[in-house]
Each structure stands twice: as structure tokens, then as C-alpha cells.
Amino acid sequence: MRRLTILLAGLLALTACGGGAAEQAAPPPAASTASSAAAGQEFNETDVMFLHMAVPHHRAGLEIVRLAEERDVRPDVKTLASAIKVTQLSEVDSMTQWLADWGQPEAAGDSPELHAGHGGDHSTSPESIAELAATPPAEFEKAFLNLLIGHQHNAVEIAKLEREGGLNPQAKELANRIFDSRTAQIAQLLGYLG
Which residues form the DUF305 domain (predicted)? Predict the structure, then answer.
């Protein structure tokens, strides 16, 4: 129960950090667009930033859910982890293809300044994933659920950025799906903890 309380407090802090002052301090990127010669689609800096944040975030999520495949967890938890894996693999394929079509690199780099204008880095650290992997069997499911709740909350925060400032219709539609599906998953995961 103490870990859940700490997790919920952390989620509230992340929401405050990711949604308040950063959004007010940094106006959305200008409506200027760049055209993709390959795809003929318009996009802006927010679309590219969204994909640069979402691709590694999804890949970290894949590492997390793969751990549930290998460990002893309830069938419902294992089923959800498998569904998340299928969805996120498909989404990564789409996002990396869009970046290629737009002539953009797949990654933006790791500089902390890159995240200053949008509330900070929303990724789950490799250390957190390694800690989960080392969790004893009796404690694994609870630790998995807690980490995945925080991870999916960060996905919602990333999606909000695109919904508010993106231009590309495909990227915005993906952000809407991520926002809705991850919000539902968080509720489901909290139910598993209850």
C-alpha cells in the first residue's frame, strides 16, 4: 500500500510538472510547416518531437511488458501485457516510417535541453526496468503493475503535447488513440492493484 501511495503521489507530481507551467511557458511551435517530399504530408516541430519522444518511450514499454511474459503473473495481467506489446510494436513501425517519410532522423539525441520546453523527459529509465527485472517472484506482479502505470501515464503526457500542438493528421490521430488507450489501461492496471 505504501508503494501505491508513493506511486500515486509521483503521478500527481508528474502531472503537475508536465501539464502546468511548462505548457504555459512554452507556446506551441509556430504553425509553419515543412513538406515531406516522399509523402507530401505536412508536419511541424511538435509532430517530430512527439515521435522522437514516443518511439523510445514505446521501446521501453516493450521491455517492460516482455518481462511479464517471462514471469509468473495473473493471466489477465499477462493478456494485457501481450496486447500492449502488439499495439506498441505496430505504433513504433508507423512512427519510424513517418519520420523516414518526413526526412527526419529516428532519434533526437539525449541532451536534457531537448526536453526543457515540454515538461522534461517522460521516459522510464533503464535502471527502473533493470530493477523490475531483478524483483523477486513474490513481489514481481505488484512492481510490474506500479512501473507500467507510471510508464503509461507518461505516454498520456507525451500524447497531450501532440494533441495540443501537432499539425500532422496521422500523428494527431495516433496521439488521440494513445491518450484514450493508455488512460483506459491505467484504470485497468489500478484495478489489478486494488
Answer: 47-190
Query: Do the domain assignments include residue 14?
Result: no
Domain containing residue 191: CATH number: 1.20.1260.10
Q: Which grid cell sits at 139? A: 513481489
Grid coordinates belonging to 71? 514471469
* Distance from the Cα of residue 165 to its chain's centroid: 17
- Structural domain of 141: 52-107+116-194
30 found inside a domain: no
Contact of 144 with 68, CB cutoff 8 Å: yes
Residue 24 lies in a domain: no
* Tally of domains in the chain: 1
Determine the Cα–Cα distance for residues 127 and 2; give it in Å rounded to an integer. Answer: 21
Q: Which of 80, 88, 26, 45 is nearest to 63 (CA)?
A: 88
42 belongs to a structural domain: no
Cβ atoms of 162 and 171 closer than 8 Å = yes
Backbone φ and ψ of 160, nearest 5°:
-60, -40
β-bridge pairing 42-43 and 34-35: antiparallel
